[in-house]
Amino acid sequence: xxxxxxxxxxxxxxxxxxxxxxxxxxxxxxxxxxxxxxxxxxxxxxxxxxxxxxxxxxxxxxxxxxxxxxxxxxxxxxxxxxxxxxxxxxxxxxxxxxxxxxxxxxxxxxxxxxxxxxxxxxxxxxxxxxxxxxxxxxxxxxxxxxxxxxxxxxxxxxxxxxxxxxxxxxxxxxxxxxxxxxxxxxxxxxxxxxxxxxxxxxxxxxxxxxxxxxxxxxxxxxxxxxxxxxxxxxxxxxxxxxxxxxxxxxxxxxxxxxxxxxxxxxxxxxxxxxxxxxxxxxxxxxxxxxxxxxxxxxxxxxxxxxxxxxxxxxxxxxxxxxxxxxxxxxxxxxxxxxxxxxxxxxxxxxxxxxxxxxxxxxxxxxxxxxxxxxxxxxxxxx
Length: 382
What we know:
globular
C-alpha cells in the first residue's frame, strides 16, 4: 500500500525523510518481536504476520515467497497447508524410520541377486515405495492408538492427531488410503510374496499396543520392521530359502533391538510418567552389556546368512566394518543425553547402507558358472 501511494501521488517528503520513516517503522516492529521473544513467546515471521505484528511490505521483497527445499522437512513445509498435517502424520518430514524399514529389504534383494550381477533395481524401487507407504501406515496406527499418551508428552504433543489437526475419523480414512496403495505395491509380487506380505499386517496393527503390555516392545518392532528380510528374497526367487532368510531376519531383529533401545532412552522419563514400557526402562544402566550381546547375535546371523548365500570377501570385510561401527556406537553412547541418543540412533541408516553395499560388492565378486550365465541370458532375452 505504501509503495503504491509513493508512485501515484506527488512526493511531498524528501528522500531522507522517507528513509527515516521506513527505518523507524522497521525498528518499531523489531522491538516488538524482541520483546515477545524475551518473554518466552518467540515466533517466526509468518506467525507474526498473522498477528499483525510483522508487515510483509517492510520485510523485504523475499518475504511471503514459499522457499522450496529438497530436504524432507522442506518438502513438507512447501506443501499446501491443508495436506501438511497428513504428511507429518506419516512422518514424511522424518525419513529415518522409512530407511530403517527399507534397508532389510535391500539386504535380502541383494543377497538374492544372481552371482556377478547387481540387485534388481526395479524390485528395489518397488520396495522403496512400499516401505514409504507402510511406514506411514504404521505411524498413523501408532498415533491413533497413542493419542491420549501423546498429549501428555512434550515431544509428541504436536503430532497431528494429538493436537487436533486431524480427527480420528480422518486419520482412519487416510490409513485406508495408505494401505490400499501398499496393497497395490504388494500385488505386483508373486503369490507367495503376496501371502507373506499380508501376514505382516497383524504385527503392524498390534505393535503399538505392546508398550502397554511388555518391557520388550522393541522386540515386536524388530519382528515388524524386518519382515522385508523375508519378503525381498521371496519376491526375487519365488519363495524363501530359510537357510539364508531366517538368520538374516534374526540379525535384523537384533539390529532393531540395538537402535530402538537407544532411541527409547530419549523418552524414558516421559514413559515412566505416562506408564508405558520399553527396553530402555528394562535395561536401565545395564543397557550397554545388553546392546553388546545383541551386536554379537546380529553379526553371527549375518555371517551365517552370508555363508549360506555363498558370499565372498567384500561381504565379510564389510561385516568387520559394521561390527566396528556398532562397537563405537555402544562404547560412546551416553544414555542420559537425549541428543546423543538421537545421534547414535540416526547413524544406523549409514550402517544399514554400508551393509547393503557390502552385499552388492560381495555378489559382484562371485563368479558365475556357465550354466548360471546361460540361464541369466535366457531370462533377459525372454
